[in-house]
């Protein structure tokens, strides 16, 4: 079953709607959606390595625009939509402490958490909620999301064929590892941050 899903994803990654799907997932992940765009970016770059950096640019741009929506949710709709999203990810009880920390460490929070498996939507909503400088938030989001997606695309562009072979030979192990990274992001948010 997993092998069929992988083959279907690879076919979709080469299809005419792949870029639209990547843009939508990248946008949504920064404001409310739980699946990181890497789940689409990786197979798309593996399927079309010559477009690696173009795909990373689209992924970054959509993620930053989605982050602006997340910021707006935190700034304008925190008491309704924002609180519901934060509570859904079991982080609501720490938002006041998180807001206080933003005054001193906001830039580092955005930069570091934008690179990790911690859901970026928590950072974007919290940035708006904390009233963090909007333009600095946008600049830091471009930097951190750009580093993340261009690093993934660059590595896949350079080492794509060996990585693809590794993925195809050890698909179950890689899938379990990817799931563990996603779950660890939520666990870190819940018990560490």
UniProtKB/TrEMBL annotation:
Transmembrane regions listed in the UniProt entry: 55-78, 105-129, 135-159, 171-192
One Gene Ontology cellular component annotation held by this UniProt entry: plasma membrane
Xref: InterPro entries: DedA_domain
UniProt keyword Transmembrane helix present: yes
Domain of life: Bacteria
Keywords tagged on the record: Membrane, Transmembrane, Transmembrane helix
Protein name stated in the entry: DedA family protein
Natural source organism: Rhodomicrobium udaipurense
């Amino acid at each position: 079953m997993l092998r069929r899903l992988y083959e279907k994803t690879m076919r979709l990654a080469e299809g005419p709607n792949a870029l639209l799907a990547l843009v939508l997932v990248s946008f949504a992940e920064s404001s409310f959606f739980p699946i990181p765009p890497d789940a689409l970016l990786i197979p798309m770059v593996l399927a079309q390595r010559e477009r690696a950096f173009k795909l990373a640019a689209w992924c970054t741009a959509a993620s930053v625009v989605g982050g602006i929506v997340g910021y707006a949710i935190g700034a304008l709709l925190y008491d309704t939509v924002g609180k519901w999203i934060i509570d859904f990810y079991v982080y609501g009880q720490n938002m006041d402490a998180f807001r206080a920390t933003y005054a001193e460490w906001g830039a580092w929070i955005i930069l570091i958490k934008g690179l990790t498996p911690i859901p970026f939507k928590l950072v974007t909503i919290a940035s708006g909620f904390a009233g963090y400088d909007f333009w600095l938030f946008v600049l830091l989001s471009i930097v951190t999301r750009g580093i993340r997606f261009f690093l993934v695309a660059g590595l896949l562009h350079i080492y794509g064929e060996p990585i693809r072979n590794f993925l195809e030979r050890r698909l179950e192990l890689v899938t379990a590892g990817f799931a563990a990274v996603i779950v660890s992001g939520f666990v870190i948010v819940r018990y560490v941050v």
